[in-house]
C-alpha cells in the first residue's frame, strides 16, 4: 500500500462525521423509528431497516440493495427485500423513518434545544452542504437526493445529516473496493481497530456460519493483513488507515459549498446538539 496523502479537507470531513453521526444514529438506537415502522406492519426491526433505508432506491431487487449496502452477508438482504415492500409501499416506510427519527431528536434534545435558533441554523447549513455534492458514483446518496427536504427544522437536520452519512458511506465503499476488502472483511478490520478479539465475536458478524468466518480470516491471513492469532499485522493497520483516510478525503465535496465562516458556524451550532445526543447514546 502506497503512502497516503492527506487532502486539505480531510479534517473537516472527519469533524463533521463526528458531529453528525449521533444525529443519524437515533434512527437505529432510539425507539420511535422502530415503533413507527412496526405500526405500518413491519414484523421485525430488520424488515423496517431494509424497507426504509433502501426505499429511496425504488423497488429494486435484493441484489441491488445488497450491492449498495455492501457489508451484509450473502442472502441477508433477500430475507427482507422485496417482501417488506409487498404490503407496505416504500414511500410509507421512508416517511415513517423520518417521522420516528425526528420524534427521537425532539425528545432527546428537549424543547429548548430542538426549538432553538441554533438548531435551525445548523439544519440550514447542513442542508446546504448535503444538497450540493455531485451524485455520480454515489448510489445511496443519489437515492436520498431524490427525496423532498423536510420543512420542519428538526426533520430537516436529520434528513440532511442522513444524506451526508450516505454520501460518506458510498465513498467508504469505494475505498474498500479499491483496497479489495469485502463487506465481512471490513467488519473484521473494524473489530480489530476497536480492540475486539477474536474479531469473529464482533456483533455485526458473530452470527454468520463458522465456516464462512473461517474462510474470511484465512483470506486476510493469506494477504498478510492479520496474523496467525487473528490480530492486525503492520500491513493490516496500514490498509485500515489508508481506507479511513481515503474515506475522509472522499467525504469532503459537500463541505466545499460552505465558506470557512459557515463551517465554523456549523460546528459551533452542532456541538451542543451532538453533546446531548452522545450523553444519551442517541437513545
> Approximately what portion of the residues adopt beta-strand conformation?
under 5%
- CA-based shape: globular
Average pLDDT level: 95
What's the count of strands? 0
Helix content: 55-70%
Beginning-to-end CA distance, first to last residue: 39 Å
General description of the model:
With 283 residues, the protein is an all-alpha fold. The chain contains 13 helices and no strands. The protein has helices at 10-29, 31-40, 45-53, 62-69, 83-86, 90-114, 117-130, 139-145, 153-178, 183-193, 210-222, 234-250, 260-280. It is globular and about 55 Å long. It starts with 9 loop residues before the first helix and ends with a helix. The model is unreliable at 1-6 (pLDDT under 50).
Topology:
Blueprint lengths: L9 H20 L1 H10 L4 H9 L8 H8 L13 H4 L3 H25 L2 H14 L8 H7 L7 H26 L4 H11 L16 H13 L11 H17 L9 H21 L3
Helix pairs in contact: 1-2, 1-6, 1-9, 1-12, 1-13, 2-6, 3-6, 6-9, 6-13, 7-9, 7-13, 8-9, 9-12
Summarize the structure.
It contains 13 helices and no strands. By secondary structure, it is an all-alpha fold. The longest helix has 26 residues.
Name some characteristics of this structure.
283 residues; globular; disordered N terminus; mainly alpha
Amino acid at each position: 500500500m502506497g503512502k497516503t496523502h492527506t487532502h486539505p479537507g480531510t479534517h473537516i470531513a472527519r469533524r463533521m462525521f463526528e458531529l453528525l453521526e449521533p444525529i443519524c444514529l437515533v434512527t437505529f438506537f432510539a425507539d420511535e423509528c422502530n415503533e413507527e415502522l412496526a405500526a405500518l406492519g413491519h414484523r421485525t426491526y430488520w424488515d423496517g431497516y431494509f424497507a426504509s433505508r433502501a426505499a429511496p432506491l425504488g423497488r429494486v431487487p435484493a441484489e441491488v440493495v445488497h450491492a449498495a449496502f455492501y457489508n451484509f452477508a450473502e442472502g441477508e438482504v433477500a430475507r427482507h427485500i422485496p417482501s417488506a415492500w409487498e404490503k407496505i409501499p416504500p414511500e410509507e416506510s421512508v416517511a415513517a423513518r423520518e417521522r420516528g427519527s425526528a420524534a427521537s431528536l425532539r425528545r432527546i434534545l428537549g424543547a429548548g434545544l430542538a426549538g432553538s435558533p441554533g438548531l435551525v441554523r445548523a439544519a440550514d447549513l447542513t442542508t446546504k452542504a448535503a444538497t450540493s455534492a455531485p451524485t455520480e458514483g454515489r448510489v445511496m446518496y443519489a437515492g436520498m437526493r431524490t427525496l423532498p427536504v423536510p420543512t420542519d427544522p428538526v426533520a430537516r437536520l436529520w434528513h440532511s445529516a442522513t444524506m451526508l452519512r450516505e454520501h460518506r458511506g458510498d465513498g467508504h465503499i469505494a475505498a474498500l473496493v479499491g483496497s479489495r476488502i469485502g463487506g465481512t472483511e471490513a467488519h473484521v478490520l473494524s473489530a480489530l481497530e476497536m480492540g475486539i478479539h477474536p474479531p469473529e465475536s464482533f456483533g455485526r458478524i458473530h452470527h454468520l456460519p463458522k465456516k464462512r468466518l473461517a474462510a474470511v480470516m484465512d483470506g486476510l491471513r493469506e494477504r498478510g493483513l492479520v496474523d496467525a492469532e487473528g490480530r492486525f499485522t503492520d500491513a493490516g493497520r496500514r490498509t485500515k488507515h489508508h481506507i479511513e483516510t481515503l474515506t475522509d478525503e472522499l467525504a469532503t465535496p459537500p463541505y466545499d459549498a460552505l465558506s470557512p465562516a459557515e463551517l465554523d458556524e456549523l460546528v459551533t451550532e452542532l456541538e451542543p446538539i451532538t453533546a446531548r445526543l452522545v450523553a444519551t447514546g442517541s437513545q
